[in-house]
Amino acid sequence: MDRNQPDAAEAERDALAACIEAIAAHQDREAFARLFGHFAPRLKAYLMRTGSDPGKAEELVQEAMILVWRKAATFDRRQASAATWLFTIARNRRIDVIRRERRPEVDPMDPALVNPPPPSAEEAMGTGQRDLRLRAAIRELPVEQADLLQQAFYEGLSHSEIAEVRGLPLGTVKSRLRLAFTRLRKIMAEHI
Amino acid sequence: MVQFHPPDELLLGYAAGSLSEPWSVLVATHLTLCPDCRRATADLEEIGGLAIEDLAPVAMSPTALSSVMAAVAGASYAEGVQDAPPAFPFLDLAVGDPPLPRPLATYLNRAGTPHAWRTLLPGVQEAALPAHAASGRPSLMRIRPGYPVPQHTHVGSEAIILLAGGFSDGLGDYRRGDVSFADGRHEHRPVAHRDAVCLCFIVTDAPVRFTGVIGRLLNVFNRS
Fold this sequence. Notes:
The structure holds 2 protein chains of 2 kinds. In chain A, 69% of the residues lie in helices and 0% in strands. By secondary structure, chain A is mostly helical. Chain A folds into 2 domains: 95 residues, Rna Polymerase Sigma Factor, Chain: A, CATH 1.10.1740.10; 64 residues, Orthogonal Bundle (Arc Repressor Mutant, subunit A). The longest helix of chain A is centred in the N-terminal third of the chain and has 21 residues. Chain B has a domain of 106 residues: Jelly Rolls. Helix content of chain B is 33%, strand content 21%. In chain B, helix 1 packs across helix 2 and helix 1 crosses helix 3. Chain B starts with 7 loop residues before the first helix and ends with a helix. The interface between A and B is large, with 86 and 70 residues.
């Protein structure tokens, strides 16, 4: 996305979210095709970066997109952008298939779930813009912090794996990521 | 409210998908009990969304869309209702104890029968869980009211999440949902609160090494 055109980026983001909602509302095949055209090649790139060969990545993306169709009703644009929601589905599929582990998730119906205090009107209003603000904040991080943060997400590497790949001491990786994280949290807190 | 949270690196690893299953179970259990960390983790997942959007696309095969369309044709998109996990007689939870958070209950259910409770010291019992993951040794620990856990240092990382009861370790007072994390720098000596049995889920990356006289004896046994 072009950072100089926030309005265009926002319109695109809304259009993609609307596609998922259309699938949920009336199994809209055209909306699904559009979503597929935009995200499938990107999810494939992500899965290849995390170590899958092109054939396996292709297979995982197809499985992930089937889940997108089935789970469309669980999407909530106030909680996450379309890109983030698809990322979590592809990430979970990778964990299930490649690592042969389950991804334990918080269950919204869990009787043990502790709910947050009700948000103020101001907070509730801000939710939809949250991901845009966060994105802007990430792009403003110092290069060496943003770099490691992205490696963690693009390549799904743990801290010690990043340290190994980059030839950095583990302590350096941890402290840079901690700085990035603290900074993002601070920015998000200011924007509530 | 929960007071002690997992370190950022665990939330980040959970969001990025790089944690092994036992570590993820610990984080998801905490997230069930901590709305603040749920929100922080959702924010971190946005970084994943950003990654997806920034990556240079790699073309899918020309038939990919039609294959997926064929697979979903006529399929219902409704989510299956998840069965409630069974109770765990093994855990011996008292009536009125708060329920086990589902990520942990589901994991215990799936992991298979835990090894028998093993007495580490008077008042302190541990049950190792079958470990299938490449990293992270999961176990349950219960401590009778008022009993101390032996002083130990850590080789590698150790995280403890409190499920019932509470303990104090000199750094703080831990209750349900709180996470105590040590990565080799700390020595601590938790003592269970006097009012209830303390139940915890623990993940370690390396065997715990006990210090002190009794600890040295235990280390001898642990090696055997």
